[in-house]
Structures are given as structure tokens and as C-alpha cells.
């Protein structure tokens, strides 16, 4: 059931593959309407054309509607099998095409794909509501739910029944006809607004260009970044110039190293004003409408605010618990950020400057302060973080922990020509799944990094059907004669997304309705992987100089360790600022008719004493995590999960062996494998033996 109810635009789409028509490709050539005959039954990306999507979506909705009608109209009394399981297994064609379309719409979109998504948005919203608000279907679901104490269900079956019933109630099944009609209207509007927000953000990111034609304006920039900018300019037919963009591998190192303060200011303002430029892609009105309609929906459902509605089925449960955690970390983080600001001011003074630092100065002077304190320039580390080596380092950690292996597959369709594919096998040699990796930015790819799926793990005819997982990033491209060399942050991101990938590959459940863990638990498997990336015994395996093959020197590892917590004031404050902004929007009990997103944001930040040099990690008009619908009233989840992951890694450290097999097996069996069969905190306690505290998190970030 949950696979059908997921918002269409969420990056991680839980798809389902099965035989949906006659064997072979049908006469019209639409690959979605036949069983895939590719290796491991991955999508035949090379055969899929734009016109295939709409046809498959329409047929998929039609088929599922027929399946739902058959459940409702059957004469037999409702049972777990003929109602709950039948519902959970319905809509396989729709899930099949959804997984591919929304995966590609995020990673390799086009104007045509975006037009299709806008056309389909109201149709899919109506289709979801037709199921959630089907009185006859809910009557059957409720009948089974009311009999649950008499049924001999397994733990997994009992959880599926509970989740299915809850999905209907939260989907409006208990509302009267008038309120259901209003809910349909709101869902359709919200779906389109979330889609519009993301499309506007992508356009704003792609439209900005900083073109440099004077070599002296490149002063301070690393050779690799200059080469990348030259390649970008050449691709844009700007021969002899250098092109910088708002994609992270371009804008962030520019802000970190460019000596030209005026140019730093220009690209910084371009970055923080995306969606706030008064043009056709301006998102301020979209934010206002989203916040207003979400509150209206929450009140319609009987909640005081939208955050209360969203948090009800998460670990946090209430806004008060979220704020308690955010506030606990905010105070020491802000104090640490003020210390870092003092260091920045000292660097400005050291250079003879006499000005108050601004946002475009922070990364630049912070880098100088770090070099002064620790004698560590990030560019010393990059040559040891060649992309393929870092990827193999992640594979190494997974092998050491779980015994699994990854082998590249060459002769297989891929979602994009830059993507690579790997087969994952368990320690006994059985097939666990296929993993795609797609690392570099392009105009057709949205920003950030994520893990998604082109097929979710399921069971078919009693056998486990393995998942097809994709990791998508926006890392620094190869430039000139250099391969892709990652920053320390990019290396951590690779390990992070790989952790999500392991979660998908290890999952072993029989029903889609128990596959998805709560939003504030989902980051535990990813964030715990980040703890291994810079462990000395791991670095010695994968961190090798791209030219000489020399293993990273012990002295450089020592510098990394000493400087590892420096900068956590800035990093924690910018993250918490965005988390608080997300929550403050969604705890509103009334939305002013004249709400201005930027004024609201400024008030939120000023109230909490945010330093003017640190904007929230995501400002209102490009905060796709919350406005796009994936992490609405949920951006706090990263810090919530960090409480878990910091404590969980302590479990390994306490044994004296970061690859302790007993702990790894317990983590796999209790956290990575069971989906949402158990409650989230129970899963954690089954692994750790106790609930976590915040001390390991504060220690991990250097905020004790």
C-alpha cells in the first residue's frame, strides 16, 4: 500500500517489477508493458522513449483501479489475504513506470519530461485519493483490522495490517463527503506546487553563470577547479574563458579559494538568492501557497498544525520533541561558530583588512584559519581521494563488515552514459542486487546527492526479487589531465549515500507496506557509514595518490584527525538553521495573508541569533527538502538520526575493533534488514541494547 501512496515527486521511489503483459516487447514497443529481459531484469533504459511514460502511467492507473474494484466487489468476506495483501500487491505496472520516470526526472530530466510530470501530477493525485477515499475498500480494511486479535498473523503481517489501516485514516477515510472533496482539492494543488518548486529551483541553478575572462581573476583557485571551469566554458562555446556555476563542485571551492572578493560576492549572492529573483522561477509565492495549503490540510484532518500531522508516525512524534533536540545542540553550536568567526576576523586583520566579514568571506578566511591552526590545506588531501579509490574504499568497508562484494557489470543498460553498474553479492555468493552509481553534475540533474531505486526488494512466487539501487551525486568532474579528485566532504557524501544503498540492498521484507522506515530513522544507515571514511585503518586502504599510488602519509592523517572537528560550529549552525526554518513554517497555526518567505526567514533567524555570515543551509526559496515534499517538517531528521548513528558507532569503538563482526551482524539483522516490521526505536534497542543519548553526537561534532 505504501508504495502506491508515496508522493510522486519523492526521489526514493519504491517500485515493483513483475510480469505485466505478454512475454516480449509489445507491438507498440513500450518496454514497460512487457517483462524486462535485460540482465537482472533492470530497466531497459536504452529502449525507453518519452512517449512510453504517459502510456504506461495511464495503463498502470487503469490496471490498479481495476484491481481495487475487484477487491471491493468480491463476495467473500474481507480477509488478510484477499484484502490487505491484495491491496499491497496492486499497482505493479504503475510502480514499475513510476520508479523509472521519477528516478530519471531527478537525474536526467528534460523540458519534455518536466511537462509530462506536470500533466501527470493531477491525474496521479486523483488516483491516489480514489484509493485512499474508497469507502468500500476502507470498509473491508477496517473489517480485517477490527478482527486483528483473532487472526494468527506473523509480526510482519500484523505490521502491514496496522500500517494499511493507518494509511487510510491519515489519508482521510474517516472524513465526511464534503471534507473528502476538499482534501482531494488540497492534495492536487499541493502536488503541483511541490513539483513547481523543484522545477523552478533547477532552472534557477542552471541559469546562473559566472564567466571570467581575465586570468588574474582566477588567483587563489586550485588548478583542478580552473581546469574544470575551462572545460565548462568550452562546452558552452566560450573558448578562452572560464565558467563557474551554482553546482556545488563549482561554487563551493570558488568561495573557499578565490582571492577576488567581488567575484566571491557575486557567486555567493547568486547561490543564496535562487528562487528569489522576481522572475518566472521565483518561489516566494509558491512557498506561501504551500505553507497555507498544508496548514489547511492539517486542520481538515483534525490537527493544530502541519508539523503535528507529519510527526505523528515518526520517531519524534511531536514538534516539542524536535525543538528540544534542536535547541539542545543550537546553543553549543552557535558558541562554536562565534569562536570560528573570531578566527576569521583575525585572518582578515592579519592580511591588513579592515572590514566586517560577510557570507562570501566565511569559507575563504576559514580555509586560511584552518591552515594557520593545523597546517592543513584541503588541496593536500584531494590527490589522495580519487573518486574510484574512494568508491572502492566504501566497498572495502562493506566487505569487512558484512562480507559482501561488488563487481562491475559492463554489458547492462544504465540510466545515463556516465553511470556505472555493480552486482552486489552476499558473503555466500548469492545475488543481493544491482547498484548504479552516477557521480557528476549536469544541467539535466537536480542538485545534491541521493540514493534511489529502480526496483524495490520484494518477493515473487516465494523467491526474493533483488533490488535495483542508484546512487546519484554531483561531484567534481575530471578536469584537464586529472581524474575526479574529491574533497573531504564529497568523500563523506559518497559513504553516506552508499549507506542508504546498503539499507536497500539488505532489506528483506515480503510486503511493500512495511518496507519504509520513518523519515527520522532513514538517515541512520547512511550517517553511520560516514564514521568509517576517515578512520586511519580505512584511509590506509583506499587513500592513495592518484599519480604515484603512495598511501596517504601518517602525518597527513594526523592533520585530518586534529582538524576534523574544526568548522563544526559553521556546519552545525547552518544545518540547524534550516531545520528550525522548516519547523517554524509548519508549526504555524495561522498563515498571514501577506506572508513573505524572506521576511519570515529573517525573523526566524534573527530571533535565534544566527550570525549574519551564515545563511541557513537551504533558504526558503531553494529548500527543496521541505518545499518539494520529501522532508516536510522533517529536515531535523539528519540530526535526530545522528544521535542514533553516533551512539551506534560507539558500539563498534567500544569493542576496540571498528569492524567487529558481532556488532556488524547485529546491525544488519536489526537495522538494515527488517524494513519497518519493528518500531524504529525497538530496532535500535535490539541492536544497541538501550536508547541513545546525545553525548556521543556532541562529542562527535566537537561541541561538548
Automatic annotation (TrEMBL):
Q: Where does the record place the Peptidase M3A/M3B catalytic domain?
A: 254-702
Q: What is its EC number?
A: 3.4.15.5
Q: Which domain of life is it from?
A: Bacteria
Gene Ontology cellular component annotations, sorted alphabetically: cytosol
Cofactor note (record): Binds 1 zinc ion.
The yes or no answer to whether the keyword Coiled coil is present is no
Q: Which cofactor does it need?
A: Zn(2+)
**Can you cite a GO biological process for this protein?**
proteolysis
The cross-references to SUPFAM superfamilies, in alphabetical order and at most eight, read:
Metalloproteases ('zincins'), catalytic domain
Q: Which Gene3D superfamilies match?
A: Collagenase (Catalytic Domain) (3.40.390.10), Endopeptidase. Chain P, domain 1 (1.20.1050.40), Neurolysin, domain 3 (1.10.1370.10)
Q: Keywords on this record?
A: Carboxypeptidase, Hydrolase, Metal-binding, Metalloprotease, Protease, Signal, Zinc
- As given in the record, the signal peptide range reads 1-22
Q: Name one Pfam family in it.
A: Peptidase_M3
User: Its Gene Ontology molecular function terms?
Assistant: carboxypeptidase activity; metal ion binding; metalloendopeptidase activity; peptidyl-dipeptidase activity
The UniProt family comment states:
Belongs to the peptidase M3 family.
Give the protein's recorded name: Peptidyl-dipeptidase Dcp
Amino acid at each position: 500500500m505504501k508504495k502506491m501512496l508515496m508522493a510522486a515527486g519523492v526521489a526514493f521511489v519504491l517500485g515493483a517489477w513483475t510480469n505485466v503483459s505478454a512475454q516480449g516487447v509489445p507491438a507498440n514497443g513500450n518496454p514497460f508493458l512487457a517483462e524486462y529481459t535485460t540482465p537482472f531484469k533492470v530497466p531497459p533504459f536504452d529502449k525507453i522513449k518519452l512517449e512510453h511514460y504517459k502510456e504506461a502511467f495511464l495503463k498502470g492507473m487503469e490496471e490498479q483501479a481495476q484491481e481495487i474494484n475487484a477487491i471491493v466487489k468480491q463476495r467473500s468476506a474481507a480477509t488478510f489475504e484477499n484484502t490487505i495483501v491484495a491491496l499491497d500487491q496492486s499497482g505493479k505496472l504503475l510502480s514499475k513506470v513510476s520508479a523509472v520516470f521519477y528516478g530519471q526526472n531527478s537525474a536526467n530530466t528534460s523540458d519534455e519530461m518536466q511537462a509530462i510530470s506536470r500533466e501527470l501530477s493531477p491525474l496521479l493525485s486523483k488516483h491516489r485519493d480514489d484509493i485512499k477515499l474508497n469507502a468500500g475498500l476502507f470498509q473491508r480494511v477496517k473489517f480485517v483490522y477490527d478482527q486483528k486479535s483473532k487472526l494468527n498473523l506473523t509480526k510482519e503481517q500484523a505490521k502491514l495490517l496496522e500500517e494499511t489501516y493507518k494509511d487510510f485514516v491519515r489519508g482521510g477515510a474517516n472524513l465526511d463527503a464534503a471534507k473528502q472533496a476538499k482534501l482531494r482539492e488540497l492534495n492536487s494543488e499541493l502536488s503541483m506546487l511541490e513539483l513547481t518548486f523543484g522545477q523552478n529551483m533547477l532552472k534557477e541553478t542552471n541559469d546562473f553563470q559566472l564567466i571570467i575572462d581575465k586570468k588574474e581573476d582566477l588567483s587563489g583557485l586550485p588548478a583542478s577547479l580552473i581546469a574544470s571551469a575551462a572545460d565548462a566554458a568550452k562546452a558552452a562555446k566560450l573558448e578562452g574563458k572560464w565558467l563557474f556555476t551554482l553546482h556545488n563542485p563549482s561554487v563551493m571551492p570558488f568561495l573557499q579559494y578565490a582571492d577576488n572578493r567581488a567575484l566571491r560576492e557575486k557567486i555567493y549572492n547568486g547561490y543564496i538568492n535562487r528562487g528569489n529573483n522576481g522572475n518566472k522561477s521565483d518561489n516566494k509565492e509558491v512557498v506561501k501557497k504551500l505553507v497555507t495549503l498544508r496548514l489547511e490540510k492539517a486542520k481538515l484532518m483534525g490537527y493544530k498544525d502541519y508539523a503535528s500531522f507529519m510527526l505523528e508516525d515518526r520517531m519524534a512524534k511531536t514538534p516539542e520533541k524536535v525543538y528540544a533536540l534542536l535547541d539542545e545542540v543550537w546553543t553549543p553550536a552557535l558558541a562554536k561558530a562565534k569562536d570560528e568567526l573570531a578566527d576569521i576576523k583575525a585572518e582578515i586583520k592579519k592580511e591588513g583588512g579592515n572590514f566586517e566579514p560577510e557570507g562570501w568571506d566565511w569559507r575563504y578566511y576559514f580555509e586560511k584559519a584552518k591552515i594557520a591552526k593545523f597546517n592543513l590545506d584541503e588541496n593536500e588531501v584531494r590527490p589522495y581521494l580519487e573518486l574510484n579509490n574512494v568508491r572502492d574504499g566504501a566497498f572495502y568497508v562493506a566487505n569487512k563488515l558484512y562480507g559482501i562484494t561488488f563487481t562491475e557489470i559492463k554489458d547492462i543498460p544504465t540510466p545515463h552514459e556516465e553511470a556505472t553498474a555493480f552486482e552486489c553479492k552476499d558473503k555466500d555468493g548469492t545475488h543481493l542486487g544491482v547498484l548504479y552509481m552516477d557521480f557528476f553534475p549536469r544541467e539535466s540533474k537536480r542538485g545534491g546527492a541521493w540514493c534511489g531505486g529502480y526496483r524495490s526488494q520484494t518477493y515473487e512466487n516465494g523467491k526474493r526479487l533483488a533490488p535495483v539501487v542508484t546512487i546519484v551525486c554531483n561531484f567534481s568532474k575530471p578536469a584537464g589531465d586529472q581524474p575526479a579528485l574529491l574533497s573531504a566532504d564529497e568523500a563523506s557524501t559518497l559513504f553516506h549515500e552508499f549507506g542508504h544503498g546498503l539499507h536497500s540492498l539488505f532489506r528483506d521484507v515480503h510486503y511493500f507496506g512495511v518496507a519504509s522506515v520513518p523519515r527520522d530513522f532513514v538517515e541512520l544507515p547512511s550517517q553511520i557509514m560516514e564514521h568509517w571514511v576517515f578512520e586511519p585503518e580505512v584511509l590506509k586502504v583506499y587513500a592513495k595518490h592518484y599519480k604515484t599510488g603512495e598511501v596517504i602519509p601518517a602525518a597527513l592523517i594526523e592533520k585530518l584527525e586534529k582538524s576534523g572537528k574544526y568548522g563544526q560550529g559553521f556546519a552545525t549552525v547552518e544545518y540547524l538553521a534550516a531545520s528550525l526554518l522548516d519547523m517554524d513554517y509548519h508549526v504555524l497555526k495561522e498563515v498571514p495573508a501577506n506572508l513573505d518567505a524572506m521576511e519570515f526567514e529573517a525573523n526566524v533567524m534573527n530571533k535565534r541569533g544566527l550570525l549574519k555570515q551564515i545563511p541557513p543551509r537551504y533558504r526558503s526559496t531553494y529548500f527543496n527538502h521541505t518545499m518539494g515534499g520529501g522532508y516536510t517538517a522533517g529536515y531535523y531528521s539528519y540530526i535526530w538520526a545522528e544521535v542514533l548513528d553516533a551512539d551506534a558507532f560507539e558500539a563498534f569503538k567500544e569493542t576496540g575493533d571498528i569492524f567487529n563482526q558481532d556488532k556488524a551482524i547485529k546491525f544488519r539483522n536489526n537495522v538494515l534488514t527488517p524494513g519497518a516490521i519493528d518500531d524504529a526505536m525497538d530496532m535500535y534497542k535490539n541492536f544497541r541494547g538501550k536508547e541513545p543519548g546525545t553525548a556521543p553526537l556532541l562529542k562527535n561534532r566537537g561541541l561538548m
